[in-house]
UDP-N-acetylglucosamine 2-epimerase (non-hydrolyzing) (Lactococcus taiwanensis), 361 residues
Amino acid sequence: MKKLMFIFGTRPEFIKLFPLIKEAEKRGNKVVVVNTGQHREMLSTLLTHFKVEADYDLKIMRQSSNLSDIVAGTISGLDPIVKTEKPDLILVHGDTAATLAGGLVAYFNQVQLAHVEAGLRTYNKYSPFPEELNRQMVGVLADLHFAPTAVTKQNLLKEGKDEENIFVVGNSAIDMFQYTLQDNYQHEALSWQADKAMILITAHRRENLEDLEQIFAAIGEIADEFKETHKIVYPIHLNPLIREKAKKLLSYTNIKIIDPLETVDFHNVMRHAQLILTDSGGIQEEAAHLGIPVLVLRDTTERPEGVTAGTLRLVGTSKANIVKETRRLLTDKKAYEEMANKENPYGDGTTAIKIMDIING
Ligand code: UD1
Ligand code: UDP
């Protein structure tokens, strides 16, 4: 068995690495969990809920959300840990500051690196920013590439990665549903929704911060137009820039702005949504599994499989387009049905098993 070090710093990394941590422990590997602490509030409740105790918490405390500060602080926090623990393999996920810093520290210490959710690309270096180059750089550093789909494997091959180190394994976001979905689930947001249909909103991307007025104006117009039939639930990211604008622009009786939900709550609330408007990456995959159409509040996506499958549609950030596309789905049953219940291209929830089969040989 091996000594495996899992490094993560944000909510989605933990959500998608948790099934791997469980599987690695089940097989008797020595697991070392490192939380960089970047999402201190959004992660601490998750760790408690899923009973994961980090062996190390870097508590990256930021006065600002300056990317250089976050990456520099993470690298200098991780380096002594890797030197002390000397793992056989470091696993990082996706495209955040922790992914990049973890990848670099693995390389500097000549420790093997596995990249989970490898090969997602827009090839537009500022969209999403800074995630596109984070994942490209980690792609250069990694020894093992766990690609969720055939499309992502092709991206890696095009970039010259060795085929024998690329494994198509699905996305562990789907594995996570085994730990979260509950029958007879109750939540305040669902009681508030009552007999109306629900539109679920999330937004957090850095490159969208300047467009939030447009996005929120569109959501306001939709709330007004569909007030007899729909309620809008918006679990809002802890970024103060987003919260301030939302508080100012989204005061409608049929919009409920709530704190970020625990993932168990988020998944169970999400499955009741009729439609999702989001700029999130992970939610695009999860909604495909639940058969819920997603309008993606971005101009690019690294998840073209969802667009091809028909569950995702890119609508950008202009008010007119968001309203037009939402109205189309809410009023045209055929257009809605065409997007709902499509086949999920992100696997069958066995990603963690596949990855650990490969790692443990
Ligand atoms: C980060 C990742 C992004 C990922 C996203 C998932 C980087 C550079 N960005 O973006 O790739 O898609 O997480 O959600 O790694 N905040 C808190 N408490 C928290 C979390 C955030 O107060 O628990 C606030 C802080 O003011 C912080 C701001 O939110 O400065 C932004 O957080 P940050 O981690 O820098 O970026 P995200 O937009 O969350
Ligand atoms: N999520 C959550 N609570 C929320 C909103 C989202 O647990 O209030 C989960 C969601 O199910 C998904 C992940 O967080 O697994 C997505 O995170 P985010 O949108 O922050 O990041 P991205 O996927 O865009 O990197």
User: Anything to note?
Assistant: The chain has 16 helices and 13 strands. The first strand starts at residue 3 and ends at 8.
